[in-house]
Amino acid sequence: MKYKYFLYIFLGLLVSCANPIPRKPVLRKTSTFLNESVILNKTMNASEENVFRALMEKDSLTEYLASPNGFWYTFNQKNEDSYLPKIGDQLFYTYDVFDTNNYLIYSAEEVGELTYIVDKQEIVEGLRNGLKLMSVGDVVTFLFPSHKAYGYTGDSNKIEINQPLIFKVQLIKINNKNESN
Description:
The structure is a single chain. The protein is an alpha+beta fold. The chain has a single domain (34-180), classed as Chitinase A, domain 3 (Roll). It contains 5 helices and 7 strands, in the order ααββββαβαββα.
């Protein structure tokens, strides 16, 4: 009788040490969502680019430059100062924001004078790249596609989601990193 108990315990231990068999997933994930998202983004970007190209053609007297960062810009007022902002420099600037129909969304008076430490603070991506192209006293008009402005979120106030924007920026002052320490 004792042997039967030991036999049952031994068989129980032998069976319990077996590796568990993994279950296959019930739902198989596909990449259709990702593919649809890519197609939607490409379509939206092409549409915004067409809107900006039409604006640039309408304003044929102004020369717009294409930035390698994915936006267009033109100098409304160009200063002869050749110093461009470097990492760590503190910038003082202001801007007006317009939609693609040239409707004023935010005025410079409403926004006020802003400061930005180059590549050390978070601001709109297009503005972050655009300010690096400016010297003190420059006034530049930037054409930012929605993904370079406020993108999928908008600003939860006046700027809608996926809204391409026109920024008219004035760089007021640069505090060089080396001079401020």
